Structure formats: C-alpha cells, structure tokens
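hey
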C-alpha cells in the first residue's frame, strides 16, 4: 500500500512538473522579443534623412570644389608669367606668355614661347597639369595689345597674332618693355595693371563670369605680380 501511494505521489509530482514546463514554454513563445533588425519604415526614414542632408550639403561641396579649381588655375597663370620671365633672363631673348580661349569648345589656354615665334605650337589647356577640367574656368584679360592694359576685361577672347593681343612679353633682361599699365580710374591714382582674370562660368551662360573670380595683376616694369579675388578683379 505504501509503495502504491509513493508511486501515485511520484506520478502527480511529475505531472505538475510537466504542466509547469509547458506553461513556461507557452509564456516564452508569447512574450519572446522579435529578432534584431530594421523595419521598412525605419529604412525609409533613414533614406529620406540622407537625401535631405545631401540636398543641403551638395551645393556647398560643389562650390568648394569650384573655388579650389579656380585657385589652381590662378596659380598656373602666375607660374606661366614667372616662367616666361625666367626663360627671357636665361636665354637672353625676349619671351612671351599668351592667353586665348578656343572658339569652338571655349577652353582656356596658355602658351609660353619666344616672342619671335607664334604661340601656335605652344598652347596648353589651362590647368591640365593639375587636372582642371576643360571648360570649368573662364579666362579674361584687359590686354588689348602686347603689354598694354585696356579699360575693361574681355572674357573668352582669342589671341590675335596681328596685334599680339592677350600677350605679356619680357625682354632679354626680364623686364616689360614699353609697358602701358592703363589709365587710373576716376578718383584713383593707381593704374589697373595688366590683368588676367579667371572666373567660374555663369550657370546660364558659359562665356559670362560669375561673381567668383581670381586674378593675376602685373603693375611694375620688373614684372612683379600680385593676386586678388572676387570684387578686386573687376575692370579697374
């Protein structure tokens, strides 16, 4: 009788244990946390936020890149003027640096050449050595003849071989012979100097400059140069 009672008690305890295990399993399944991950709504929100940030930051980034290209192009012009002067002093011959913009695809070019030779075989796209994309920089000068400053800046102009328009020439001593630095503007005693202006093209017209400019100005017979930007690069 005792063995039977013990067996029944053992069976009862085992059944209660099984019931508790089953109840715990159902509870765990019911309240289990879903697997880690992102819902579709969360992904859409993130994509929209990225798009908004890109729309805000992209224009500033492109303007920064354009200014960097402009600075590099301006450095190239300074280097070209200085190289022409060095070549004149080194060879004891007159050397020129000329500027042009191609008529077909409006690419700014520069040439360093002996003054007795035409620049035809010396033209190089402005800034190609520093990977400036062709057409991304607009070139203008106030050079109406060799070493002669005019009263305004002409953009996207072509080199003129008959007048040596858009040319700066150094003699065998490295100075600017018969240079005319222009007429001082009203209210000033300072001549504008020989100016080479570089600008980011206007978005509506690739041959018109925007307000973002860099320029190189030659104001002395010794050929010393200074650089300016934006409103300092206007006509006078």
């Amino acid at each position: 009788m005792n063995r039977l009672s013990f067996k029944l008690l053992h069976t009862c305890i085992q059944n209660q244990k099984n019931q508790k295990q089953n109840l715990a399993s159902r509870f765990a399944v019911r309240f289990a946390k879903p697997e880690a991950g992102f819902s579709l709504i969360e992904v859409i929100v993130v994509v929209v936020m990225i798009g908004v940030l890109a729309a805000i930051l992209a224009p500033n980034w492109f303007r920064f890149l354009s200014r960097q290209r402009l600075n590099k192009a301006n450095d190239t012009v300074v280097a070209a003027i200085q190289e022409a002067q060095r070549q004149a002093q080194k060879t004891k011959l007159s050397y020129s640096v000329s500027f042009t913009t191609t008529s077909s695809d409006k690419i700014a070019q520069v040439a360093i050449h002996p003054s007795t030779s035409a620049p035809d075989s010396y033209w190089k796209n402005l800034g190609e050595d520093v990977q400036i994309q062709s057409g991304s920089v607009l070139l203008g000068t106030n050079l109406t003849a060799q070493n002669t400053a005019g009263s305004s800046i002409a953009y996207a102009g072509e080199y003129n071989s008959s007048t040596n328009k858009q040319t700066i020439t150094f003699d065998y001593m490295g100075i600017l012979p018969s240079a005319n630095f222009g007429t001082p503007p009203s209210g000033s005693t300072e001549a504008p100097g020989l100016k080479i202006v570089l600008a980011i093209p206007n978005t509506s017209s690739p041959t018109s400059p925007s307000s973002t400019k860099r320029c190189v100005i030659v104001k002395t017979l010794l050929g010393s140069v200074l650089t300016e930007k934006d409103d300092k690069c206007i006509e006078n």
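Helices lie at 2-31, 40-91. The mean pLDDT is 83.
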